[in-house]
Amino acid sequence: MRIQTSLMAIAAVLIVAGASKSMAHHAFSTEFDADLEGELEGEVTRVWWANPHIRYIVSARMPDGTIEEWSLQPPGNLPTYRREGWTRESIQVGDVVRATGNLGRDGAKKMYPACITHENGRRFGRCVNAGSVARVTADPNIDYTYQANDYDVDISGFWSNRYRFRTTVDDFEPRPMPLTVESRAIHEAREFGDDHVLRCLPAGLPRIFGSPYPMEIVDAGSHYVMVFLQDNTPRWVWMDGRGEPEDRPLSSMGFSVGHWEDRTLVIETTLLEPGWLDGSGYPMSGGDDTRIVERWEIAEDGLTIDRTMTIHDSLYTEPLVRTRGSQRGDSRELLESAPCDPTQHYIDMLERGRLEDLLLQQ
């Protein structure tokens, strides 16, 4: 175990009245002491990289020579880190870091680090970017407002996706599924509780394509904003001809670009994170190995859409096709989705003796 120096957080606690009271965190005051600061150095043994907060587990040597596991819980969220160039790969298991910040209340082995310094010298956190934002001044090269396009077809408004709905489980063509040896092995190895949607993680594409939940579409000029009421999920379809950004991370909804072909909206999506194609557990590669093309054919009267999705994925020997539909609906149905609650799923996993395995996967 590669631990280079010692924990000084307990032996030499710095009492700094009010030094960190300006830090905003929804649970800071219940978990951490704003008047108690310290320093910690050790080897990273585990990384949780997920919203709303990341976490690093660090193995550190105490002044008496014993080894303790400490949790570093830095402020901020993934979009904030992304703007700063702080990624999942920036600090990895086996790296040595030094952290300074507020200690946990009641002797808890946790820290709210204002600064994390990697063994290579790079620093992360508020010691690099304090988070303050200067008042914006007008830039003539930026259009700060949205103006709808004068498309021949107007799809803005409220849509019900129960039209032509069928359950999104094993609903692909062709049949049987054109599995490779690898995808068949992954599918056959699935166990109860493996589905990330049961833990209230985003369904993402391609699953949300088949959802019966309504959606609202707004023409925002350079792009369409599509809000799916399943888990209040937004989607951006860029219509201004932009290419795939080089530094954009993989996500559950990916990066979508679109264009019109007469009355058909064609959407191509890439940069998807690995996931499930449907509730049956068929795997999706994600990244460079997955590309999704959708064709939304708008009826002449503008009241219905026939949607076809084609999935190109290296885990399958042929493209996979899913079909659905949408029809104009009453905007009074546009209600915020209730928050997802994974409690019952965790109860089910506990009853099956798999809760510990599930938590270790997080």
Question: Key features?
Answer:
single chain; 362 residues; mainly beta; OB fold (Dihydrolipoamide Acetyltransferase, E2P); Lipocalin; nine-stranded mixed β-barrel; five-stranded mixed barrel; 5 helices; 9% helix; globular; disordered N terminus
What features would you describe in this structure?
The chain has 362 residues and is mainly β. The chain has 2 domains: 14-125, OB fold (Dihydrolipoamide Acetyltransferase, E2P); 157-361, Beta Barrel (Lipocalin). It is globular and about 75 Å long. Helix content is 9%, strand content 33%. A 9-stranded mixed β-barrel has the order 8-9-10-11-12-13-16-17-18. A 5-stranded mixed beta barrel has the order 2-3-4-6-5. Strands 14-15 form a two-stranded antiparallel sheet.
Structure described in brief:
This protein is mainly β and 362 residues long. 9% of the residues lie in helices and 33% in strands. The relative contact order is 0.12.
Topology of helices and strands:
Blueprint: E1 14-15, H1 28-31, E2 32-48, E3 55-61, E4 67-72, H2 78-83, E5 96-104, E6 110-118, E7 123-125, E8 157-160, H3 181-188, E9 215-219, E10 223-228, E11 233-238, E12 255-261, E13 264-270, E14 275-276, E15 283-284, E16 290-298, E17 304-313, E18 320-328, H4 343-351, H5 355-361
Parallel strand pairs: 4-6, 11-12
Antiparallel strand pairs: 1-2, 2-3, 2-5, 3-4, 5-6, 6-7, 8-9, 8-18, 9-10, 10-11, 12-13, 13-16, 14-15, 16-17, 17-18
- Find the CATH topology of the largest domain: Lipocalin
Distance between the termini: 23 Å
Our estimate of the beta-strand percent is 25-35%
Oligomer: single chain
Largest sheet: 9 strands, mixed, barrel
Instruction: Return the CATH architecture of the largest domain.
Output: Beta Barrel
| Low-confidence runs of at least 5 consecutive residues | 1-26
Tally of structural domains: 2
- Proportion in helices: under 10%
The H/E string reads: EHEEEHEEEEHEEEEEEEEEEHH
**In total, how many beta strands?**
18
User: What is the gyration radius calculated from CA atoms?
Assistant: 24 Å
What is the approximate shape?
A: globular
Average of per-residue pLDDT values:
86
CATH superfamily of the largest domain: Calycin beta-barrel core domain
Figure out the total of helices: 5
The top-level CATH class of the largest domain is Mainly Beta
Strand order of the largest sheet: 8-9-10-11-12-13-16-17-18
Alpha-beta classification: mainly beta
